[in-house]
Design brief:
mainly beta, seven-stranded mixed beta sheet, 1 helix, 3% helix, globular
Length: 126
């Protein structure tokens, strides 16, 4: 059973930075495509960023965060990170880590995954 535990959420002013971490247990994370989704109040969950199980160089981003967010992974620690810079009020949401065994790129950029974390709140004040 794969478990994902997020950390690093909080309150930040617009223009600030935060880094989220997601630690995976129960399976070697090198076989997992991993990513982040978010859900703002009253809105559907949306894709934010993902990183392939094949190569850490294969990363994918939603247009709304491209150039501001960076996803990375440390397989030795079974952990994926989301560095978020130049945060905007519209980034306010609950952020969920997700994982999937050997996913395609298309699947990584979706919102249906095998494993989910519990979510962490990000609030960006203007």
């Amino acid at each position: 059973q794969v478990q994902l535990v997020e950390s690093g959420g909080g309150l930040v002013q617009a223009g600030g930075s935060l880094r989220l971490s997601c630690a995976a247990s129960g399976l070697d994370s090198s076989s997992l495509g991993m990513g982040w989704s978010r859900q703002a109040p009253g809105k559907e969950r949306e894709f934010v960023a993902a990183i392939s199980w094949r190569s850490s160089k294969d990363t994918y981003y939603a247009d709304s965060v491209k150039g501001r967010f960076t996803i990375s992974r440390d397989n030795a620690k079974n952990t994926v990170y989301l560095q978020m810079n130049n945060l905007k009020p519209e980034d306010t949401a609950v952020y969920y880590c997700n994982a999937e065994l050997f996913p395609t790129a298309r699947s990584l950029m979706g919102t249906e995954h095998e494993y989910w974390g519990q979510g962490t709140q990000i609030t960006v004040s203007s």
